[in-house]
Design a protein that fits this description.
By secondary structure, this protein is an alpha+beta fold.
């Protein structure tokens, strides 16, 4: 009898200690950073209407992710929610706004990574998932693989019940005209207009017309987030490089190049000329500087973008976040669509190089 009482008392004490430990766990402040691509983004080309439209798109995306975090949701869910907004917005080179290959098709890439456990998923060259970022997450959670490409990735996305669209859904007139202009400059043949799309329009809304020839050529969308549990995540989604060879895959779906996240260092999403990001392993390189050299996040992203990437003559930018709430971005192009928000603060947003 005495032994039973002692056991009950011991279990009660253990429960009390456990409860105290849980109560003492620090509550993190959430934070989120988004980007909508880097490139030749200049005020004169974008114009006041375009400027306003792109800032509104960034605002919608960052608040979609912030809403998840403010409800106590995970960094993974916030990343996915914010990228959904980009993928549904024809202004950005992802999903509905994806650029075309030189054969006049949309081939999209995406990846996502959970910093709490290093799990990751990616798809490359998909043509039908409405939200490629969700297809990437499904690869992570519902398959034994990290990356699936091409028709197999499309079939997998459909098999797990994701929302699918016909290829014509991803057509936008502004992206098509951008491809036509580029191919004419390069003296290459113009592919036939895709089947099932609207007739050619002689007018394109100013906010959707890319006057700068390379503004979306290397564009990408990405998000990094920190939740109240102290976990970080990163995701990237893109239509790739305008006028690319069919089957070309850039850095966006490659873990360690365009996307990386680890609670031991940081979460990173990149945008730029993917071939250079792959060769340098940009996302993992940033995290390595934080983890192995103890560098502050801003110093690490500047080191990689302005020294290491430029040494290879590569161009682009990154956004990044750490579990202790450091937020950073860095780019060596004329502009990068970007915004960040920390719990209790105000959105900080920029497009051009001369903005903070």
């Amino acid at each position: 009898m005495q032994r039973s009482v002692s056991l009950v008392v011991m279990m009660a004490l253990m429960g009390a200690v456990s409860a105290v430990s849980v109560a003492q766990q620090p509550q993190h402040h959430w934070a989120i950073v988004v980007h909508g691509g880097a490139g030749v983004i200049e005020k004169s080309a974008l114009g006041p209407d375009g400027d306003k439209a792109y800032r509104a798109g960034l605002d919608r995306a960052i608040h979609a992710g912030a809403s998840v975090l403010d409800r106590g949701g995970s960094a993974m869910d916030a990343v996915e929610a914010a990228i959904h907004v980009f993928e549904d917005d024809p202004l950005f080179n992802a999903g509905k706004g994806a650029v075309f290959t030189r054969e006049g098709k949309n081939e999209m890439d995406s990846s996502i990574m959970d910093g709490s456990n290093l799990k990751a998923g990616a798809v490359a060259g998909v043509t039908r998932p409405r939200h490629p970022i969700s297809a990437a997450r499904a690869v992570m959670e519902k398959s034994p693989h990290v990356m699936i490409a091409g028709p197999g990735a499309d079939a997998f996305a459909e098999s797990v019940g994701l929302e699918m669209e016909p290829p014509s859904y991803f057509f936008t007139e502004s992206r098509w005209q951008g491809l036509v202009k580029q191919l004419k400059r390069e003296g290459k043949p113009i592919p036939p207009r895709p089947a099932g799309v609207p007739p050619e329009s002689s007018t394109v809304p100013v906010a959707e017309y890319d006057e700068a020839p390379d503004m979306h050529r290397y564009g990408t969308t990405g998000v990094v987030a920190l939740d109240r549990q102290g976990n970080i995540a990163a995701g990237t989604s893109t239509g790739g490089m305008q006028g690319k060879m069919p089957g070309r895959i850039g850095d966006s779906p490659i873990i360690g190049a365009g996307t990386y996240a680890s609670n031991q260092s940081c979460a990173v999403s990149g945008t730029g000329t993917g071939e250079y990001f792959i060769r340098l392993g940009v996302a993992r390189e940033v995290c390595n500087l934080v983890f192995f050299k103890g560098m502050k996040l801003q110093d690490a992203v500047d080191q990689v973008i302005h020294k290491e990437l430029e040494a290879l003559h590569g161009d682009g930018g990154v956004i990044a976040i750490t579990p202790d709430g450091q937020l950073a971005w860095s780019f060596n192009t004329p502009g990068m669509f970007r915004a960040r928000l920390a719990e209790g603060g105000q959105v900080q947003m920029g497009i051009y190089r001369d903005e903070p």
